[in-house]
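At this stage, I put together a protein sequence along with its fold in token form, as given directly below:
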Amino acid sequence: MAREIWHPAPCPDGVKAALRALCAGNANQGQQQTAMSWLMFDCCKIRDELFVPRRDQVDGQRVTDYLLGRRSVGLQVARAIETKMGPVNSRGAPPAMPPQPAKPEAASEPKGPEQIPIVDDAPGQPAASAAAAEQSQPK
């Protein structure tokens, strides 16, 4: 079977190993270059002519559009690599986020008003706070 333009780019074992090392964060310089070269030039075809006249027996537009989409991804990556980075913020790095409080594991369902325990903060007052009891008494 003939290889069509829209088929995935061939990926030799050396490139697969380089991509895996890159994703794991432990690729050496050669592996990084191999992985990026394969992505940019084989997958995204950023150096290829992508116009395909009459390739799909109508006008070639769909195949050309597909290849331009692949190339667009590569050009975005290349632009991000080549663009100068802005100056570092003079105020420094933002402060670390505070740790999130631990959530109780036993609370699987939210409690409704009838399930919330009423805290008796005034001794001798049944099921109501001392402030509520004082407001209900005549003056």
The two ends are 97 Å apart (CA to CA). Helices lie at 13-24, 29-43, 61-82, 130-136.
